[in-house]
Amino acid sequence: ALFTYEGNSNDLRVAGSGDGGLEEMVEELNSGKVMYAFCRVKDPNSGLPKYVLINWTGEGVNDVRKGACANHVSTVASFLKGAHVTINARAEEDVEPELIMEKVAKASGANYNFHKESSKFQDSGPQAPVGSVYQKTNAMSEIKRVNKDNFWAKAEKDEENRRLEEKRRAEEERQRIERERRERELQEAAGREQRYKARSNEIEAQKRLQQQQEAENRNKEQQQWRAVNPRDIFKQREKSV
């Protein structure tokens, strides 16, 4: 399936689909447009279907448009999920069917020669041309089918992320409660220390006041005894006799 932009807007539309193979797909790429090709091919090593995403920026596209559309590549790749191989192309030599199939084979971990079949396929009967694996399909149905393959994996990933987020929040809440408890204990300890010091200062002040009063009383008594003459006491006794 081929996608391109609607005029100079950023809205994608389906440009077409076909069953003529990779050769037909390459012919549909326009050198004056930015296009995205999403196709299914057969892995020459395993025989399993593989998906190829081609980000095509024609050589005739102006630099401003190239820069603007370059920011859309990741979004398009996210929308067209399931691609095993992604190819960034500007010219026809970048999308030669041989090159595409070699990259598909390389992605599966083996070498592949487009012009020569592997020996493991020699006895399996006549082989269909590579072009036949580019199958005609409804673009949106193809996208939905690929997305469906990834739905449960994404759901499991989202659930795992949700559990991790809940765990993180619970840990943050626990740390917050523990931090508030420590701060409260420190404040209470500081309050007790302050009250203890205030009480100690009060007791010390009372002791000093009491000691001062006792000293003053002793001074008064001493002064009274010093003011009395012993001879006057004897004279007073003689007169009384």
From TrEMBL:
GO terms for biological process: neuron projection morphogenesis; positive regulation of axon extension; positive regulation of dendritic spine morphogenesis; postsynaptic actin cytoskeleton organization; regulation of actin filament polymerization. Residues 1-105 form the ADF-H domain. Its main location: other. One of its GO terms (molecular function) is actin filament binding. It comes from the Eukaryota. Signal peptide: none annotated. This is Drebrin-like. It comes from Chlamydotis macqueenii.
